[in-house]
Amino acid sequence: MNLTPCVYPLIPITVSYFGGQAARGGEGQGRLVVHGLCYMLGLAATNSVLGVVASLTGGLMGSMLQNPIVLIFVAAVLVSFATSLFGLWEMRLPSGLTQAAAKSYTGYFGSLFMGLTLGIVAAPCIGPFVLGLLTWVASMGSPWLGFLIFFTLSLGLGLPLFLLAMFSGQMEKLPRSGGWMIWVRKLMGWILVGMAAHFIRPLLPGQWGMITLALVALAAGLHLGWIDKSQAGFRAFPWLKGGAGVTCLVLSTFLITSWAMQGPGVTWVPYSEEVLKEAQNTQKPVIIDFYATWCTPCRELEEVTFHDASVVKQADSDFVMVEVDVTKGGNPVHERLLEQYEVKGVPTIVFLDASGQERRDLRLVDFLSADQFMSRMTELKKGGK
Known about the structure:
Structural class: mainly alpha
Low-confidence stretches: none
Strand order of the largest sheet: 1-3-2-4
Shape: elongated
Largest sheet: 4 strands, mixed
Distance between the termini: 53 Å
Radius of gyration: 26 Å
Helix content: 55-70%
């Protein structure tokens, strides 16, 4: 984001401001450090509050994401923000708000104010990306992750400026502004398109979700690496473009190869009382998977853990694998099971021993690697409490 046309020109202005504040105080480098910290604190305060507020809507967002219409709407919003970064339209804030944010204040409050308002000044370039990131954070529903993600974003924006202020003599080595910053905006646009593809994956049949992500990576690589004609005044830029293009092509190839080489997965049977009774009669332990197609960890479990050859072999030979699909909700049988097993969210995987009793110590409520899942299967077969 620091390399976009709205933020990059502010770097020398910001660094000069820090230097002037330190010189005015007559205390040199020490005051410069404090000004830099105030600046990053302002950035962190603004962005982290946004992240926490967005994530607090997560409970509502999570239930809404059961609706295909909502998934399509969110993906459309992300793509529309991406088109802004591609240059099809420009995000503009009211001039009064922009002018207020551009005011200069002295002292430590001035540095804090610059950090607090950087997002307003740079909104035409970074606004679409930040709004897209807010949409993604809201879908996660974790205030802690929301804070952490946007706090990290603040460090990414503020730390380079802080370091440049500390070593302001190196400013002349920075590349000059130019068309290469438009290329950086387009790079962020493709990231939003990839996020949109991630949101609509649950609506696509079979492995089309993986194929869609691969196609997005392929298109991004061709566009960023070779189709886009942005130029720069420094020699490394063609290598940067080529490297980004090759990276995207490698990612696309990896996704397609992973899909093509994926072996058979675990064979699941729908829940029924008869299935559980038959399992008790044959003295087989039962694994019940409560999942939903809109649940990201559920998809990770299905695509990674439940397609691992060792897990598949063990499941087919020694276990009864039962699934409960709560994607749409409203099924009275499923509602009863959710209450019976005290399922608070998905994924939730319940392990029943050969006698039909749950091993609560083995319950799983998040993604788990194949090796760790195998350990739980082995522990369940022992039948101990």
